[in-house]
């Protein structure tokens, strides 16, 4: 053997890089033994462990038997577990009655079961992570896979793992009551109508008390009803006027298109002029007077196409942490995806997106506002009342209604050629109804607002006939059924036809 051969390092075999899977067999046995000597022990571990949490196959079968006994409300001990395994045809697979007896003799008390259970759960999570990383690695090396799809699937799988293994401790009522009372005191000392983030619209603030932390708000409407105009008006009111940091995720328009509309909104310049550049002298003056207001606005725009719920979560967390963002706007929900997961239907996917948005609002403790499309069924209905949207019109998933804390519909009778109410009292020209159809924390109703499509803008309605009276019940903007104004006591957004009959309508 020459010197070069002597210096050449020995080639390592794959086994030298292998690792023993995370496991704690003795701890697993201790957990199972404790479950069979303490009738109440299972309640302490049932939400943390599944059969697959145990590494040893025999231990998986024993825990499965224990879980079955608990579901059948039967006692759990050496005899019942042995009998159950026999009925399941698995007694010999686990080692017979002797193995069950050995398990119960391993511990004298269940005092440490919570500690031992956490060890078993952590080892299981570690094994899941190893499998997850291995699967991702294989897919990355496979050149037939689209790397973006691999990334989306990896993010979704990791999200599922974190959700399954994230347990929230119970809270004692007393400190929660103290916190709630403190919030009531703060609200009482607040002389204004809002306890959350002001919408910038007087009547809407009176109805909602502003956008509340941890709330998911759905703003829905058919095309041309002004969803984007309403969203941009809110962005201008919140970020530009109040200097409250907010994020705007635009899945439909580019950041430049969105900014052009925002400039039209804030400066009251027709959008077509900003596109073709044919501004007149007064338009340049408006632009000069308002442009600094927009440039100083803490508004963060993301125009990523095909935004997935995982992308949104990671970006939202970073925006809150780095820029103190206090509100998120999404335009719009149905353009989002839950990439990396497989679904039986689009409804199922939208349901997950909706549920995730509510979870994001709770996690970050900020309002999340999402625009949403409506079904085409609205177009097929006749009459002024028929065109007004209902909760059942929400597109693609009933889960949107269920998950949302507030559902707001935008409706413009003028778009359907309805210029006046049937009694001639309400002029719908350049007006829009903001319909609060669901409000988990307050009342519902309809608010009338000014709508200026050429400016992509919503404004407070200055018509004194549509503002609340000083007495005799509250009228929010206009609670209208073919021109009839209803007080809060009379208004029922889910059965306007019945109310019309009760009032002896037209």
Number of H/I helices: 20
- Shape from CA axes? elongated
Q: How is the biggest beta sheet arranged? A: 9 strands, mixed
Roughly how many Å apart are the termini?
A: 109 Å
The main sheet orders its strands as: 3-2-4-5-1-6-7-8-9
Given as residue ranges, the uncertain stretches (5+ residues, pLDDT < 50) are 3-17, 468-506
Tally of strands: 11
What fraction of the residues are assigned to beta strands by DSSP?
5-15%
Average pLDDT value?
78
Overall radius of gyration: 30 Å
Q: Based on helices, strands and strand pairing, what is the structural class?
A: alpha/beta
Helix content: 40-55%
Report what the structure shows:
The chain is 45% helix and 11% strand. The protein contains 20 helices and 11 strands. It has helices at residues 3-7, 25-35, 42-45, 57-71, 78-87, 97-104, 113-141, 147-164, 173-189, 202-208, 227-241, 255-267, 271-276, 281-295, 309-323, 346-364, 377-380, 383-387, 399-403, 496-502, and strands spanning 216-221, 246-250, 299-302, 328-331, 368-373, 406-411, 431-439, 445-452, 457-460, 480-481, 484-485. The strands form 2 sheets. A 9-stranded mixed β-sheet has the order 3-2-4-5-1-6-7-8-9, with helices on both faces. A two-stranded antiparallel ribbon has the order 10-11. Helix 11 crosses helix 12. Residues 3-17 and 468-506 have low confidence and may be disordered.
Identify the notable features of this structure and list them briefly.
506 residues, alpha/beta, nine-stranded mixed sheet, two-stranded antiparallel sheet, 20 helices, 11 strands, elongated, disordered N terminus
